[in-house]
Amino acid sequence: MGKLFDTLLGRSATVTEDDYMDLDLSAYEEAEANAPALFVKIATVGDIKDSPKIKDEVYNGNVVIVDIGRLKMDKVMYERVLKDLKEVAKDVNGDIIGLGDQRYVVITPNSVKISRDKIGEGL
């Protein structure tokens, strides 16, 4: 350890090849190459206190599909949660859309936009 401090403090001018260690980063690079760019997460909201977990996922760059069906009975809570989710979509320059009679909400991060065009006739 003394040799390290001497080198850092400039006391030792001789550096040999033995002073360095080869690092094998192939396992790390392989894991990085296979990592997905984002995840699609599923959430259920029953209260405003569930919002921070959803917001964290969107801030981390994931798409979140939220079941807000339980909130339909409490209009005030429904509005508060939707306001909270709209704000996170705006914060990350993402997107948000309601599906299925507003039973589900999809929130996306910055790099993902939701098309409003429906595919197929039955939709």
Shape estimate? elongated
**In percent, how much strand structure appears in the residues?**
15-25%
Order of helices and strands: HHEHEHEE
Number of helices: 4
**Can you name the CATH architecture of one domain?**
2-Layer Sandwich
SSE order and pairing:
Elements: H1 2-8, H2 26-34, E1 40-44, H3 51-59, E2 63-67, H4 75-91, E3 95-99, E4 104-108
Parallel strand pairs: 1-2
Antiparallel strand pairs: 2-4, 3-4
Helix pairs in contact: 3-4
What does this structure look like?
By secondary structure, this protein is α+β, with helices and mostly antiparallel strands. The protein is 34% helix and 16% strand. The protein has a 4-stranded mixed beta sheet with strand order 1-2-4-3. α3 links the parallel β1 (40-44) and β2. The model has no long low-confidence stretch (mean pLDDT 83).
In short:
With 123 residues, the protein is of the alpha+beta class. The protein contains four helices and four strands, in the order H-H-E-H-E-H-E-E.
Keywords:
123 residues, alpha+beta, Translation Initiation Factor IF3, 4-stranded mixed beta sheet
